[in-house]
Amino acid sequence: VRDCIQKTLTEWSSKISQDQNQETLEVLECTVAQAIEKINPEERDELKVSAKLFIVGSNSSSIRDAVDLACSALGVAQLDSVIIAPPPVEDGTNLSLEYLQPYWKELENLVQNKKIVAIGTSDLDKMLLEQLYLWAQVKPSSNQVNLASCCVMPPDLTAFAKECDIQLLTHNDPKELLCEASFQEVLQESIQNVKANKWIPLWLLRYSVIVKSRGIIKSKGYIIQAKRNAS
């Protein structure tokens, strides 16, 4: 992730004028056009577009921004599936249904508005997954389990997932995919005279476009949003 961000920012920075680089703009869109492959509408039915969303700052409204930007970047009307990684909780606090609810409601709204087809979770144990399933209007279609935390799927989780038709997937993502300090370090290295310590990452979305019939990845990438503190 760090390398992707650094290469994108370095190339983007080299192509814009120094004046623009110094401007205090409300929104900076740092993209390298040739690196993003928009989906041909004629091929859309043959492709599955899936994403995993990592919320860095605890703000549920980030979900809509992330999905909208992903759809726009890829040239599609909706994403086939979105898995959300549990947003960060304060030290000493356990992840709970109450904490997850605002984020899940945002995902449900996007399903109802036909921006997402299916939604899933990551790293929920059997108890929390069951609580979410019973409460949710739009049920989770999948739950990712980190291979680092367990070599074998917990039997209670497996039984519940089978009963409720929830697909169990595995992943090996670190708990914190991109921390604030690492992001600011990349900014400092990639763009001259940027006040890196004023920029805070909000979310990171990883997408993949898969050819359904062949099960191969056609394209993949990351989209990240950060905000600049006014102070």
From TrEMBL:
Pathway per the UniProt entry: Sulfur metabolism; glutathione biosynthesis; glutathione from L-cysteine and L-glutamate: step 1/2
One of the GO biological process terms: response to oxidative stress
Entries under Pfam families matching the protein: Aldo_ket_red (PF00248)
Protein origin, superkingdom: Eukaryota
Gene Ontology MF, one: ligase activity
Gene Ontology CC, one term: glutamate-cysteine ligase complex
Keywords of this entry: Acetylation, Glutathione biosynthesis, Ligase
Positions of the NADP-dependent oxidoreductase domain: 31-169
Signal peptide positions on this chain: none
InterPro entries, A to Z: Gclm (IPR032963), NAD(P)_OxRdtase_dom_sf (IPR036812), NADP_OxRdtase_dom (IPR023210)
Recorded family membership: Belongs to the aldo/keto reductase family. Glutamate--cysteine ligase light chain subfamily.
Subunit structure: Heterodimer of a catalytic heavy chain and a regulatory light chain.
Listed name of the protein: Glutamate--cysteine ligase regulatory subunit
Organism annotation: Rhadina sibilatrix
Lineage: Eukaryota, Metazoa, Chordata, Craniata, Vertebrata
